[in-house]
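User: Here's a structure from my thesis project, written as structure tokens. My advisor, Dr. K., wants to see whether a designed sequence matches the one we expressed. Can you design one independently, without my sequence as a hint?
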């Protein structure tokens, strides 16, 4: 999960960097338009001179403004053509605007409000480093401009005796405004960046959901070709729809009175009579959601009177955060050939050659099935170990040891009988998976039979046992129960050696 989250964060970072890259290109283009627009500043001021709106300004100054702006706009245009996404291109445009403001201020064109236009424009890049750079450079240019224009302005302002006093007063105000601009601009930049990151994250989630939905649709389409019957059941609007049907029409499900879907009502007509009750129990639509809770699928095998064995499955397609299925698929698939092969392979691969009990492979497969389907209320796991097998092998030979193992297997199997399965998982190690309310009785039966056993080579046998129950440890997993049972078996073995005065080598 952690690796998956890291992958998602990395993807969002890549998307955001791509956004910054494209945004920088777009803003650079707009800044170039602004520079070209400022070329008209010179003619506009010249018109103001003609109409006596401006004073103390010469026509040559207007021409200079237009010429300088034209050169800077042209230079920025060339940079934009060659390096459209470069930070250098961005900074050049901002410096050009600052330079223009210094030139205009030096020639006594009142543009004080325009000084903070450059930092405001820099916010458009959504890059805090560009904003901070623009603000610092802007402040430096204000210092230079105010120092250069201070002698002239001081002579016009009767309140200032010297140009230095004029300079300090103006810069004091500019400094306060710059600090305010820094705080406001930083907050706006941060909010903008966070907002765009949020949008990109939401877009990534939407795309991921669309991808998952598309994958589910493709799976549904492919399943419709593989299975004999495919029924989409929606528990949100209580409908069913056959995906193998050409019209794919939805049919309502009355959860108050209806126990089975239309499809299963049809399928049950071909189920073997002795399996109908099990089929109806498995396909009961009122219990499907609870049985599928926190599971990907549940399945069961039945016999069709015409085609043989078929496998019915409920598969979760969509579920709530609590693991309750909202949409499931019911499928059936012919597995008659598979069943025939299983009957042969089970005898070869799942039994122990010496004892004819189930082997470790069967034990592991059954544990996996229990992990998938959950533990029954009366579930019990029993760990068993034959005492003194090594001594028998060393003193009487391996034939005597094999006899002892087979005798132990018989004692366990006779005691367990129909309430569970017994497995030989190692040399003298056995496990039993039981469904019983009285595991203590089973253990006593095994020990009693072991005490009564006599062989050709050995005349006695004892076994150490330990068990764990789901009822005792309802929150424990099958693996934890196995560990508990094994630990109790070793405790029983220690007692055996201690009671018989045998020093056990570890």
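Assistant: Designed independently from the structure alone:
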């Amino acid at each position: 999960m952690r690796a998956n989250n890291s992958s998602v964060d990395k993807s969002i970072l890549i998307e955001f960097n791509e956004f910054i890259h494209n945004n920088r290109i777009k803003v650079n283009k707009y800044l170039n338009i602004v520079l070209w627009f400022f070329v008209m500043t010179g003619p506009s001021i010249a018109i103001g001179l003609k109409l006596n709106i401006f004073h103390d300004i010469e026509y040559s100054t207007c021409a200079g403004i237009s010429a300088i702006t034209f050169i800077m706009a042209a230079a920025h245009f060339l940079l934009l053509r060659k390096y459209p996404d470069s930070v250098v291109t961005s900074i050049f445009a901002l410096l050009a605007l600052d330079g223009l403001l210094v030139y205009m201020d030096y020639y006594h064109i009142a543009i004080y409000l325009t000084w903070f236009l450059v930092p405001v424009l820099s916010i458009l890049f959504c890059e805090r480093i560009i904003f901070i750079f623009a603000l610092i450079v802007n402040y430096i240019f204000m210092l230079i401009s105010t120092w250069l224009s201070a002698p002239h302005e001081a002579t016009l302002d009767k309140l200032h005796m010297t140009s230095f006093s004029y300079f300090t007063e103006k810069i004091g105000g500019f400094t306060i405004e710059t600090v305010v601009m820094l705080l406001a601009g930083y907050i706006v930049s941060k909010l903008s960046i966070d907002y765009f990151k949020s949008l990109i994250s939401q877009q990534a989630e939407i795309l991921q959901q669309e991808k998952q939905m598309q994958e589910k649709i493709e799976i549904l389409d492919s399943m419709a070709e593989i299975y004999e019957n495919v029924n989409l059941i929606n528990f949100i609007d209580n409908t069913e729809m056959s995906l193998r049907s050409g019209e794919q029409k939805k049919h309502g499900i009355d959860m108050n009175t209806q126990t089975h879907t239309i499809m299963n009502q049809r399928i049950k007509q071909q189920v073997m009579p002795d399996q109908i009750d099990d089929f109806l129990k498995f396909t009961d639509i009122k219990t499907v959601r609870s049985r599928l809770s926190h599971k990907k699928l549940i399945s069961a095998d039945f016999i069709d009177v015409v085609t043989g064995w078929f496998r019915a499955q409920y598969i979760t397609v969509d579920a709530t955060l609590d693991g309750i299925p909202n949409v499931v698929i019911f499928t059936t698939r012919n597995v008659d050939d598979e069943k025939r092969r299983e009957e042969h392979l089970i005898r070869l691969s799942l039994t122990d050659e010496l004892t004819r009990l189930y082997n470790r492979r069967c034990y592991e497969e059954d544990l996996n099935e229990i992990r998938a389907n959950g533990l029954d209320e009366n579930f019990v796991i029993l760990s068993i170990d034959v005492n003194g097998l090594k001594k028998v092998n060393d003193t009487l030979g391996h034939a005597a040891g094999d006899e002892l193992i087979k005798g132990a297997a018989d004692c366990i199997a006779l005691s367990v009988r129909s309430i569970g399965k017994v497995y030989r998982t190692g040399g003298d190690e056995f496990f039993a998976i039981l469904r019983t309310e009285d595991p203590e009785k089973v253990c006593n039966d095994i020990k009693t039979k072991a005490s009564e056993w006599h062989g050709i080579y050995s005349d006695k046998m004892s076994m150490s046992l330990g068990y764990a129950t789901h009822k005792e440890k309802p929150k424990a997993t099958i693996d934890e129960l196995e560990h508990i049972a094994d630990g109790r078996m070793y405790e029983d073995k220690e007692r055996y050696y201690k009671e018989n005065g045998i020093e056990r080598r570890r």
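When you compare it with your expressed construct, this may help: The chain is about 60% helix and 15% strand.
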